[in-house]
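Reviewers of the previous submission asked for a worked example of the structure-prediction workflow described in the proposal, so we include one complete record here. The input consisted solely of the amino acid sequence. No template or homolog information was supplied to the procedure at any stage.
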Amino acid sequence: MQLDNQTARKLWLHQQALTRPLNAPFSNQDLHDLIVQLGYVQLDSIRTIERAHHMILWSRADKYHPDQLTALHEEEHTLFEHWTHDACLIPTQFYPHWRHRFDHAKQNRAARWEKRLGPDGDKIISQVRARVKKEGALMTRDFEDKGKGAWWGWGPSKTALEYLWRSGEFTISHRKGFQKAYALSKGIIPEGLRTAKPTKAETLDWKCRQALTRLGVANAREIAAFWQSYKPAVVSKWIEDNDADLMHVEITSADKTAPHKAVAFRGLAERLEHVPKPSSRLRFLSPFDPLIRDRDRLKRLFNFDYKIEIFVPEKKRKYGYYVLPILEGSKFTGRVDLKMDRKTSTLQMKGVWWEEGVRQTPARTKAFDQELARLAKFLGAENIVHL
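From that input alone, the workflow returned the following structure tokens.
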């Protein structure tokens, strides 16, 4: 099947929940459904504007409030925290398919972990386990050796907490000031999900199908990168083995490179008939937004070359420290450098850059100002200043 670039963009935006009505009512159930649709929401501590997980959800729902995410994770426990490509909040219903990641962490304690644990590693792990069993959820700061390690400041107890979390025995019950609180998974994760034992083959099939469902059309590398659980060669073999369920697609590239070969589930043409037209509304996206995480896919589909420059020395930055992409409809039209000054309750605009060929018309300026005001309202900023 030949798929033109505009149709491929429209499908990807729809899969990413960027065609849903922004100002619709938004309940906790709506938030849960949104995260299920995305697959996960990435966590990040940087708060130059607002933390990535909140920005990702806000960009898809005007009425989203951070307290809703806290409720789902810390009170209702319908989300759990673990790893995909990075630390994420993941629907708890997916928990059984993290079992093999837990087992791998348990069975493969790397040398650097042993070094951090010290010569009495098993004893440290037993002591940490016993304290959490007795006292309930604990944080790194509850242990005397906090901050005494060279590896990100991990002392033996912090390393034990992380090991027990990554191997599934502990879960993150909540965060305080973005610091993790570790608790026993038993009692938080429902027993049926905690004790389920899908085979490795079942989890491979589930993760590949779930990734392709959310991507719409993708190649083996993109499917593998979605959960970051398998190498592309493993996914290529899965594609071969499931050829009866799949169709081959060739997608026109926006950046003038050769058409991109991918696969999709059969019935793509029928599904495309129900994909709505993207909203023309201008919106800011987080630098960690899942729409732009795969930079190769971003460039190929949108001809938008984006790089986050937080790790680039200031003098070498092309734009700024924390620059947000600007999306209008199915096109990236620019980027804006923003910062929230919480001491003065001021949203600062440090610079805006429009893509080549994009004119700053009165309508675009109005739409930009409206989005800036919308962001200020979300952040609770009382002022907007153009620096």
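Residues 336 and 352 are 4 Å apart (CA to CA). We consider this example representative of the routine output the project will generate in years two and three.
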